Amino acid sequence: MVLHLPPTQPSHLVEVLRTRTSLPTREPDDKEPIVPGTLYVAPPNYHLLVERGRSFALSVDRPELFSRPSIDVLFESAADAFGPHVAGVLLSGANEDGARGLGHIAAAGGLTIVESPTTAAVPTMPAAALRRVAVDHAVPAAVIGTLLARLAAPTRSGEAT
Amino acid sequence: MTTSPDPELTALLDAVYHRYHYDFRGYAEASLRRRIGAALTHLRCPTVNDLRERVLAEPRGFSELLRFLTVQVSDLFRDPSYYRSLRERIVPYLRTYPSLKVWVAGCATGEEAYSLAIVFAEEGLLDRTLIYATDIHPESLRAAEAGVYDLERFARFSDSYRQAGGRGSLSDFYTAQYASAILDRRLKQAILFSDHSLATDVAFAEVELVSCRNVLIYFDRPLQDRAIGVLRDSVRRKGFLGLGAKETLRFSAHAEAFTELVPEDRIYQRR
């Protein structure tokens, strides 16, 4: 998970999320192996990348679209590493970060979801993605959780999808 | 999922190593790909193979590529709590030595070396300290040695300096001239800038403190082990190693050589 935050202060996002989810939640260290069922949050002032060997990497390369962490950097590296096995979700936001990355995920055969600009607190980010990418789902934020749960659930034989 | 290195990328890195003796073959792939991608755009090369041919044909093309592969931007007092911990937890040990050597490995354009020099100056240790600051990129070393930065960055640097426990004002350590800030000569006099590669060189001195921050994140695991081995060989017994805020020895072959002294700021002590 990437959230644009000011670079100079520690983030409390992990603590906030921990009160809302039973999933283990943390900022990964460099080279930390990716463990299923864990929520990882990009640390402030670093780009978070996914390596092909199923681990995270971090970088302090220049901000992209004024953002570090950058959503594009995460999405593009995840698409490179996992190809069609990636789902990218883009929520409300005030710049166009994420649109290019979501395009990479789509091109690699992954699943793309954006929050409907009409319900987003700030529509710029999902609107930019919709202009650029033929996304699989554009739905209100409240629906995204249910949608992901349904898509992640193992499909039972005979059930239509 | 197995790692399958891209053959064009491998060929480029092999060519760079054999022709120019810069070794990027053990760099972590995800960041490396982004950097190569940016170089392709900038140098108007359609493919990695074109870039390889260009770099082999023109040394100038190589120095441009080198800039994409190496340049990091840091700040004075990036991660203030690191410097605060050095001041509060490490300086008391360092005071007990009659003379001090410090190594800033991967100093880029010098911000970290100067931040340490400022802490040492305020703690009254700079007169007996020699700081080695090394990097593989000649242009960065020249910029580091000059110690001139954009003045507009100093509002933020001053905030970080205060959060890091600065005793005075950051302006005690630089002179503003037009849009630039020039760091003080007494800081520069304590720092020796030179070329060193954690990928190909070995330890060159025994020091009381090594600070190597946000450098290892660009290396893959085997190269990290090599580099951490060099750092280990450089720190005297009971000396200190500081890493970046998200770097850890946890996954390293050399974890046993150190104890975690200030875990939250990634400061380790050599056993």
Detailed description of the structure:
The complex is a heterodimer of chains A (161) and B (271). Chain A has 161 residues and is α/β, with parallel strands linked by helices. Chain A has a single domain, classed as 3-Layer(aba) Sandwich (Rossmann fold), CATH 3.40.50. Chain A has five helices and seven strands. Chain A has a three-stranded parallel sheet. In chain A, strands 1-2 form a two-stranded parallel ribbon. In chain A, strand 3 (47-51) and strand 4 (55-59) form a beta hairpin. Chain A is globular. The two termini of chain A are 27 Å apart. Chain B is α/β, with parallel strands linked by helices and 271 residues long. Chain B has two domains: 7-70, no CATH class; 80-270, Vaccinia Virus protein VP39 (Rossmann fold, 3-Layer(aba) Sandwich). Helices cover 42% and strands 20% of the residues of chain B. In chain B, strands 6-2-1-7-8-10-9 form a seven-stranded mixed sheet. Chain B has a three-stranded antiparallel sheet with strand order 3-5-4. In chain B, a hairpin with a 4-residue loop joins strand 9 and strand 10 (267-270). Chain B is globular and about 55 Å long. Chain B starts with 6 loop residues before the first helix and ends with a strand. The A-B interface holds A 8, 27-32, 43, 45-47, 49-54, 57-62, 73, 76-77, 80-82 and B 1-4, 28-31, 33-35, 72-74, 78, 156, 159-160, 214, 216-218, 221, 224, 244-248, 250-251. Chain B: Residues 1-249 form the CheR-type methyltransferase domain. Chain B: InterPro entries: Bact_Chemotaxis_MeTrfase (IPR050903), CheR_C (IPR022642), CheR_MeTrfase (IPR000780), CheR_N (IPR022641), SAM-dependent_MTases_sf (IPR029063). Chain B: Pfam families: CheR, CheR_N. Chain B: GO terms for molecular function: S-adenosylmethionine-dependent methyltransferase activity. Chain B: It comes from Nannocystis pusilla.
